Amino acid sequence: MSSVKNVIKDNYNMMLLKDYLREAIKDAGFSHAEISKTPTGTRVALHVTRPGIVIGRKGAGIRELTEKLASEFGLKNPQISVNEIEKPDLSPSVMCNRMASHLERGTAFRRATMWTIKQIMEGGAMGVQITISGKLRGDRSAFEKHTAGILPRAGHHAEVIVDEDIAHVTTKMGSIGIRIRIAIKEKLIPEFELKKVEKEKEKPKEVKVEEIQVGDIKVEVIKAGENKDKAKSESEQIEIEEKKMENLETLEEEEEKMK
């Protein structure tokens, strides 16, 4: 029975740790963390859109994060590596957090949903489904599903191709849940290839691995090529998207024009 309790305790601690990381490095575009125990300590691989924010000026951010993981979460000798996400628009967790930020700032839920779908499909997704539920319009809870492209919903292929994540946000109306499922072309099984127009082959992106020494701590930073995004943080990214979103027409606005 004690072994079962230890497993439950470890899983609960990992859940608390990931919740903490999601909030602590939210502005760095946190996606997920891979935690594994090694003979020399605990290896923590952080996947973010902006590694520089995690590291901080002269390594202050990574030093503080390392101390926090050791003192509050009891990780033995945490060794942190920071991995840059190559395609943030195809990461369900990143897009969930961005959509949640839009709703927190007062953006209409349908406008935020349409914008998120547009960004994901333009990022190269095979298909996407966004489910939003909660106090959307009034006192009664409701939910809506919006889908674009091709999205397997059941079977082995859905498990292989589709990635998903869930986020929750508290608004003036109440709590709202967001679930995003993205079908990624690169994971498509060969016998079910999609027909596509031949395009020029893109040059493979170079992946750079840098090792930064911060006092006694060594941090690996894995960069996935050039980042065309001009925003320095997720907060700036949200502000840029809100300005672009003003020109986006919702279904209600299209219906009004047709009357």
The CATH superfamily of the largest domain appears as Ribosomal protein S3, C-terminal domain
CATH class of the largest domain: Alpha Beta
* Helix-strand topology string: HEEHHEHHEEHEEEEHH
What global shape is seen? Answer: globular
Global mean pLDDT: 80
**Low-confidence segments, ≥5 residues, pLDDT <50?**
none
Query: DSSP strand (E) fraction?
Result: 25-35%
CATH architecture title of the largest domain? 2-Layer Sandwich
Number of helices: 8
How many strands appear in the DSSP assignment?
Answer: 9
Backbone structural class: alpha+beta
Number of structural units classed as domains: 2
Give the N-terminus to C-terminus distance in angstroms: 67 Å
CATH topology of the largest domain: Ribosomal protein S3 C-terminal domain
Largest sheet: 5 strands, mixed
Query: What percent of the residues sit in helical stretches (DSSP H or I)?
Result: 25-40%
